Amino acid sequence: EKKAAKPKTKITSTTTPRARTAQSKAAKTVAPARGVAPDAPVPGGPEPQRAPGNPRTPGEAEPPQAPLSILMIASEAHPFARTSGLADLAGSLPDALTRLGHQVTLVLPRYAGVDVDGTVERMTLQLGTRSLDVTLHERQASDRLTIVFVDEPSLFAREHMYGEPGRDYDDNAWRFGVFGRAALEYARQRG
């Protein structure tokens, strides 16, 4: 049985020769697909360029890196203080990072009801024309995790963490400015 041939359609282009050349060049340029490493080889394309001293082949895992020393500063972290998802993240991320071999220091305010133990250090912070004495409580939670509580009762030993129900504390900018400054000074002193 013979099949009927499909009629041929003639396609004409109104594109100028210059535009056709540009389209042809663009068609030859291949952008990497999402999720594909930029140095992954393109089938039929040239071999990817590698940095000197990097003999890895595409798809090969990155070599393990040296452990990092990570400083995390958060206004809340589970199980010490919690009002939102920030506490869940700040409470779980240090554990994940230490499992990867990194050294992590988590700095938190010492709110009312947070029991502290460990090393105590006092420091005087200079903020503009004002100075303030704060106490740091350093607790070794594990061999790779240190938790530091910034203690200044007039700023953090309050019934609520951020304000009365329906209203923030008027001095929150000062409170968390002092907290941030104390955390950075702690890091500076530790090197």
Helix content: 25-40%
Q: Give the overall silhouette.
A: elongated
Radius of gyration: 30 Å
Secondary-structure class: alpha/beta
Percentage beta strand? 15-25%
* Helix and strand pattern: HEHEEEEHEEH
Distance between the first and last residues' Cα: 87 Å
Name the average pLDDT. 81
Kindly state the number of beta strands. 7
Describe the structure.
With 191 residues, the chain is α/β, with parallel strands linked by helices. The chain has four helices and seven strands. The chain has helices at 17-28, 85-99, 153-156, 172-190, and strands at residues 69-73, 103-109, 119-127, 130-140, 145-151, 163-164, 167-168. A hairpin with a 2-residue loop joins strand 6 and strand 7. It is elongated, with a radius of gyration of 30 Å.
Write out key terms for the chains shown.
191 residues, alpha/beta, 4 helices, 7 strands
In short:
By secondary structure, this protein is an alpha/beta fold. Helix content is 26%, strand content 23%.
Topology:
Blueprint (H helix, E strand, L loop, with lengths): L16 H12 L40 E5 L11 H15 L3 E7 L9 E9 L2 E11 L4 E7 L1 H4 L6 E2 L2 E2 L3 H19 L1
Parallel strand pairs: 1-2, 2-5
Antiparallel strand pairs: 3-4, 4-5, 6-7
